[in-house]
Structure formats: C-alpha cells, structure tokens
Amino acid sequence: MAETTKTPVTILGLGAMGQALAATFLKAGVPTTLWNRTRGKDAELLAAGAVTAATVAEAIGADGPIVAVLLDHASVHATLDPVAARLAGRQLINLTSTAPDEARELAAWAAGHDCDYLDGGIMAVPPMIGRPGASILYSGSRTVFDTHRETLELLAAAEYFGEDAGFASTYDFALLATMYAMFGGFLHGAAMMRSVGVSAAEFGRRAAAWVGAMTQSLPHQGAVIDTAAYADPVQSIAFHKAALDAINRASRDANVTLDFVAPLKNLLDRQVADGRGALGFERTFEELL
C-alpha cells in the first residue's frame, strides 16, 4: 500500500513555541520549511529533516499552509507585508498571540491579498505541544480549518469557533487572564508563607490541591452570573470583604505588597459602599463591565 503523503507546512518564527511546533510536525513526518529572523535556532530541526529558508519570500514559496508563530501583531505585519503580493491563493494560520481586533484586522488584510486566514490561540506551553492536555482554539476560515485539521491535531486538540477571526483569541486571552490571576494569587501566598519559614515549593503543593478543589465551583459561579441570581448567597460580598480586609492586614504584617489583592478588595469595598454587600460574590462580575 502506498504511504500517505503528508501536507507540507511552513513555519515563520522559531521562538520556543515555533520550535516545539516544528519538532512535532517533523516527528510526525510532515515536510517542514522554517524561517526565523535571526539565525542559529534551527540546527536540531535541520538535523531532524526540516528545510530552512534564507528569506520570507523563499519560505512562503514552499507548498502548504503558512503558520506564523511570531512575537506579536506588529511582527506579523513586519514579516508578511513585504511579501503580501505573494500570498494570493495561499492559506495563513496565525498562531501568534494577537488581540481579538488585531486578529480581525489580519483577517481583513489577508482577504485583501486573496489569502485565506485562520487564527489560533495556543492553550499550552511549548513542552505540552503534541502531548495530551494541549489544545489550540481556532476561528476564521472554516475551509482552512477543515482542510488541515488532521495536520493541526498533530500539535494539540483542535477546536473551531466560527468565522469571526477574533473569537479564538478572545477565548485564549480570557483563559490566560484566569491563569495569570491564579499565578498572581499563588505568588502572593508564597510571599506570605515565606514570612513564617515555609518554602514556595511546599506551599505550592498545598496550594495546588486547594485551588484544584476551588475550581470545581466555576461552572456554578458562571450559571449564577448568566442568570444574575445574586440574591440569597451562601456567603455575601460583605463576608468576602471582611476576609479580604483581614488578608490585606496579614499581608502588611508579613511585609508583602498588596499589588495582587488590593484591586479585588477595592471592587468589594465599592459594592458594599453602594449597598450591595448582601449580594453574592459573583455580583462582582458586574463591576467589570
């Protein structure tokens, strides 16, 4: 039986994520062309069978979809604007971290050059690529997604969210906001525990179990927010304000700054001052809009 030919890909950008994507494609036998602004990051990938291109024009001259994994929105334009005329009839998959409106702008820009555009938000760190637990959220061209889904799923679980090119990055950044707030809380807690001689590693083990248990309430909290059912809470905003007041005092006593916890305390203080202290904590969502 003849061996199935894998669709080739071109990767623009060899930061840690770009290298992880390329290595995963190569391991799966996908012909991979590479370009990076600075040289010297492709030695291991070349040894694994990749082809390197000296210029962007040379790189996008290869067959298959073009996968951009660059620094930011501006770098996508800096890389592709000079070769825009060569993108006609091509397919661009942008996995660069771009804000939703930036993704929409790139989609419109690509359409203006007769290029089909798919945007993606990578929900993984580089070592997770190609492994269970990694996912990439996509929106934009359904044609590009459907055509290359099998190839994309070599990298991570692939989920499509419709034609709005900015949808995937909205989801991506919303999840990252949740992650960074959690990490910030962990850093604050670790700083507090250092004042009593507990290592960050030891605190991390206990915090992981605690935070994991607390995340089980998120779907319920989401349902409360969606229905604005803030009355008759188990624990009120006033209750949580008292807890945050105490945490702030304890933090000062431990010589820990309030950069992470003070903003939440301010949101609770404002609601209590406005007469909403008897409502549920989930009502804080309304203060963000």
Tell me about this structure.
The chain has 289 residues and is an alpha/beta fold. Helices cover 47% and strands 12% of the residues. An eight-stranded mixed sheet has the order 3-2-1-4-5-6-7-8, sandwiched between helices. Helix 7 (167-194) crosses helix 8 (200-214) and helix 10 runs antiparallel to helix 11. The chain is elongated. The N and C termini lie far apart (59 Å).
Kindly report how far apart the N and C termini lie.
Answer: 59 Å
Q: Compute the gyration radius: what is it?
A: 23 Å
Q: Could you tell me the number of beta strands? A: 8
- Our count of helices gives 11
Structural class based on helices, strands and sheet pairing? alpha/beta
User: Which range does the strand content fall in?
Assistant: 5-15%
Unreliable spans are none
Any idea what the shape is?
Answer: elongated
What kind of sheet is the major sheet?
8 strands, mixed
Helix and strand pattern: EHEHEHEHEHEEHEHHHHH
Approximate helicity band: 40-55%
Mean pLDDT: 95
